[in-house]
Amino acid sequence: MLPRIFQAEDGKDFFFKLQSRFFISSLMKCFLPFVLLASGALFFGSRYFDSPQIAIEPSSSLFLPCVNKEPSVLDRWVKPPSSLMHNMSDEELFWAASFVPQVKKYPFHRVPKVAFMFLTTGPLPLSPLWEKFFKGNEGLYSIYVHSLPSYKANFPPESVFYKRQIPSQVTEWGNISLCDAEKRLLANALLDLSNEWFILLSETCIPLYNFSIIYTYLKGSNHSFVESFDDPSPHARGRYNPEMAPLIDISQWRKGSQWFEVDRTVATHMVQDTMYYLAFKVFCKPPCYVDEHYFPTLLHIETSSLIANRTITLTDWSRGGSHPATFGEADISEEFFKRILDGQECLYNGKNSSICLLFARKFAPSALQPLLHLASTVLGFT
């Protein structure tokens, strides 16, 4: 016998009442928490408006919002590596450095920097001059040093060169390994998204102007400064190997200075190339010197409209021979700089300019003291 509450005149009415009670019970279970929550909100809300308002710290809120405490994912892309030392292979490094954002507007505050990349064998004897050059311009530059793997720099923590060595490999003059080192410098510098301009220098290079002039010059330029010219002589076209065709035709063959300055777009082209690189590695052997032809030819083919076809680093070949002149202590004077700086003429953004060279080489260690003496009066260092 069913309890009285479940008794009905017919079975259909019984199941209808049973299902109704089950449905109402389920609704109560589902909505009761929300009813209580709403009641609580009305209660505390009325108390809030009826009583003096007291500022409540977020930490004392009754209902804490669900906030993600993890660092912003964007930081992984924006922040440069905390250390320049890593265990990536060249293949991994060049791959990581070749990423290019397709949205050109940066979603964060970005101050573009100049990456100064020193390709050296070991010490930087002119580092005191560079220290004076960089002083007071923090946040506008980055420094990268590629030396022989066996060399361990000993710069003090306050030096701009402190811990600025990158993982390096042995390089040989006239060998493809020299271009590998240049690409290694570019790739490490590209990992810092704030680096916009990239300058290749040696341990014998010096700046010819103060930091402000050089930074403004690079920032205002519409082109990268890579020397790339067609020379019919035996020292240029005469080094072309017909085995490079059809990938590289002799009409595309170019020669230029090893010392370049490129922007981020051109730097990425240089790092990501594998096709032309392989052709030069196989077919450009001495007396074909890879560092004089690889990048000038590559960039002439791929980005000719982006380069100015000139270098901004002075090299004196007037003394003849296979190596440029070296300047020592006896060479350094105000007249020396007047000679190399006055009378310059070149195109800058399609207009005539009297500032064409921003750096010079090769300076011996003995030139350091007279250079420091003239740094403020002639070079404009503060």
UniProtKB/TrEMBL annotation:
Subcellular location: Membrane
Primary location recorded for the protein, binned into one broad class: membrane
GO cellular component: membrane
GO MF annotations in UniProt: glycosyltransferase activity
Transport is among the record's keywords: no
A family per Pfam: Branch
Coiled-coil stretches: none
Residues annotated as transmembrane: 21-44
Superkingdom of source: Eukaryota
InterPro entries, per database record: BC10-like, Glyco_trans_14
Keyword annotations of the record: Glycoprotein, Glycosyltransferase, Membrane, Transferase, Transmembrane, Transmembrane helix
Membrane topology listed for this record: Single-pass type II membrane protein
Keyword match RNA-binding: no
Protein name as it appears in the record: Core-2/I-branching beta-1,6-N-acetylglucosaminyltransferase family protein
Native source species: Dendrobium nobile
